[in-house]
Design a protein that fits this description.
single chain; alpha+beta; globular; Protein-Tyrosine Phosphatase, Chain A; 361 residues; 6-stranded mixed sheet; 40% helix; Immunoglobulin-like; 2 domains
Length: 361
C-alpha cells in the first residue's frame, strides 16, 4: 500500500482550497433577467449564485441556483431593480458581480466602476461610485431607477457655459449635493477653445490625435484642484457618489483613471475601463429622444470641427490616457509621488479610501 506523506496532503489541500471564481461578467438580458458568465480555478466545479438589491449582500440575499455551467441566465428581483450577484464556489473565494453599464433613457454612458481587481487581489466595491455623461435629459423612469442607488453627491465637471446650455438635473427631492467642479473653461467660460483653434490650422488626423494626447497630459496637472475636490468628497465618506461631464469620456475618464490607480487597480485595467466608452457612447443604439439629446449635447461642442476631427474627439483612444500617465511619471517619477504632491492624497488617505472602497470579493 502506498503511503501519502503529510506534505503531499497539505499541498493537495492548498490547491483544492485555492479554487476561485474569476472573470465574472453580468449582462442584463431582460427586465429582470441576467446572463452571468465566469471561470473557476482549482478543483471546485460548482458555484452557488445568490442575488440581492443590497450591494454588500448583507440584506435580502436570495439563493438562485447551484450550477456547474460557466454561463447561466437567471431571473432575479423585480423589473427596474438594481441587482447584485454573489458567486460562491464549493471551495475557495467567491466574487460579486453586477451590470457595469446602466442603460438609462436620458444618458448613454452611465457606469458603475465596481468589480475591478487591484494589484494585491482586492476588488473595487460595487454600488458606491458611478461615472456618467450629461445628466440634463434624465427621464422619470431614470429617476425611479437612480433613486435606489441612494447617491449622496453629484460632481459636475462641465463648465458654467455648458451648464447654462443644458442645466444639471438629478432626482427631485433626493437631497443629494450637486457640486460644480468646472474643467476645461477658457477666459470666456467655454470649453475646447484651444483645441478648436488648433483645428483651424488644418492638422492631419495623426497631428490631431497627438494634440488630444497632449491635452490629456495637461489635464492631470492643470485641473488637479478640481479632481482633488472629488477626492475630498470621497475622503469624507460622502458615498455613493456620481461624477460626470458632457460625454463622460475625457474629464470623467481622466478622473476615473486617477481614482482606480489610487485604489491600486493596474494601469492596463484602467485603460480598458476607459476604452469602454467606445462601446457605450460611440456605438450607442438607444434611439430614445432623451438619449439623442444627450448625444447631441456632447456633439454640439464639436460643430466647428470636421467629421474626421469629430471622430478623433469622440473616440476613447487608449493612447490619450497613456499619455497622461506617461506625463505623470516623467514629471514626478511615480504615480504615488504625483498623488501625494498634486492631489494632496497622503498615504493615510489612500489607506482609508481603500478600506472603504475595496472588498475581498
Amino acid at each position: 500500500m502506498y503511503k501519502i506523506s503529510a506534505a503531499v496532503l497539505l499541498l493537495a489541500s492548498s490547491v483544492f482550497a485555492s479554487a476561485d471564481v474569476t472573470n465574472p461578467v453580468c449582462q442584463q438580458s431582460g427586465p429582470n433577467t441576467y446572463t452571468i458568465s465566469y471561470a473557476l480555478t482549482g478543483a471546485s466545479h460548482r458555484v452557488t449564485i445568490a442575488a440581492s438589491t443590497d450591494p454588500s449582500g448583507t440584506n435580502g440575499l436570495v439563493n438562485l441556483l447551484r450550477t456547474e455551467k460557466s454561463e447561466v441566465t437567471v431571473t432575479a428581483g423585480k423589473p427596474g431593480e438594481r441587482m447584485y450577484f454573489f458567486l460562491t464556489p464549493d471551495q475557495g473565494r467567491g466574487r460579486e458581480v453586477s451590470i457595469r453599464h446602466i442603460a438609462l433613457e436620458g444618458t448613454p454612458n452611465f457606469r458603475d466602476i465596481g468589480g475591478y481587481e487591484t494589484s494585491d487581489g482586492q476588488f473595487v466595491r460595487w454600488g458606491l461610485v458611478y461615472r456618467s455623461g450629461v445628466l440634463t435629459y434624465l427621464t422619470p423612469a431614470d429617476f425611479a431607477y437612480l433613486r435606489q442607488l441612494d447617491v449622496n453627491v453629484v460632481c459636475d465637471f462641465r463648465t458654467k457655459q455648458e451648464n447654462e446650455q443644458a442645466p444639471e438635473q438629478w432626482i427631485p427631492g433626493s437631497g443629494a449635493s450637486l457640486i460644480s467642479l468646472p474643467i476645461g473653461a477658457d477666459s470666456n467660460g467655454s470649453a475646447n477653445a484651444s483645441i478648436r483653434k488648433f483645428a483651424e490650422s488644418h492638422p492631419t488626423i495623426e497631428q490631431f490625435k497627438l494634440r488630444m494626447a497632449t491635452t490629456y497630459a495637461t489635464f492631470v496637472f492643470q485641473f488637479a484642484p478640481e479632481y482633488a475636490g472629488v477626492f475630498a468628497q470621497l475622503k469624507q465618506n460622502h458615498l455613493p457618489l456620481t461624477y460626470h461631464c458632457t460625454a463622460g469620456k475625457d474629464r470623467t475618464g481622466v478622473f476615473t483613471a486617477l481614482l482606480l490607480r489610487v485604489l491600486g487597480v493596474p494601469q492596463q485595467t484602467v485603460v480598458e475601463d476607459y476604452a469602454l466608452t467606445n462601446e457605450y457612447l460611440m456605438t450607442q443604439n438607444d434611439h430614445s429622444l432623451a438619449s439623442q439629446k444627450a448625444m447631441a449635447q456632447a456633439q454640439s461642442m464639436m460643430k466647428s470641427f470636421t467629421p474626421e476631427q469629430r471622430k478623433v474627439l469622440m473616440a476613447a483612444d487608449p493612447e490619450y490616457l497613456k499619455a497622461a500617465f506617461a506625463a505623470i511619471d516623467e514629471r514626478y517619477g511615480s504615480f504615488d509621488d504625483f498623488r501625494r504632491q498634486v492631489l494632496a492624497l497622503t498615504d493615510a488617505d489612500v489607506s482609508a479610501l481603500r478600506t472603504r472602497l475595496l472588498a475581498d470579493r
